[in-house]
Amino acid sequence: MAKLPTGPGTYDDVPLSALVRAARRTYGQAVRRAQEAIGCDDLPRAGGFILSAMSWSDASVEAVVEWMGVSKQAVSQVLDRLVVRGYLERKQDLKDRRRIRLVLTERGRSSAAAARAAIERVDRQLLARVGRAKVEQTRATLVALIELGRTRGRRAPDAEGEA
Asked: Which of 66, 72, 110, 130 could crosslink 134 through cysteines, CB 3.0-4.6 Å?
């Protein structure tokens, strides 16, 4: 069995899925540190992503939940915690008074801005390390992987490529 690398070395034998997961941690740690620095250290799991996505895309909670690929019920507790902790607030939808919208508060916008700045710092470091062409190729590869998952539905393909 191959040993997982823990330091500089070769990652040739590590599955791409494991590399993606480990690489994601780099962003997560940077975002967590930035949010802790501004007093936003009480975010629930996935809360930071929800706030950031709402901020960067001006998307509704429903759109963010769809992007995450989970049901609204799966994140309803996270949303409630974000409201209680002052990151989101409930407002009546002016177009449809039967609906309640969740919108970013000032604290939510600050948290999202800190996350965005942390992500941009990591992106600049990555760009300096590997160059624009490799970053753009990685982005294209990740987009293709996302689209592959969407075209196959919610089930992952098996070894032969069948869903």
From this structure: 130
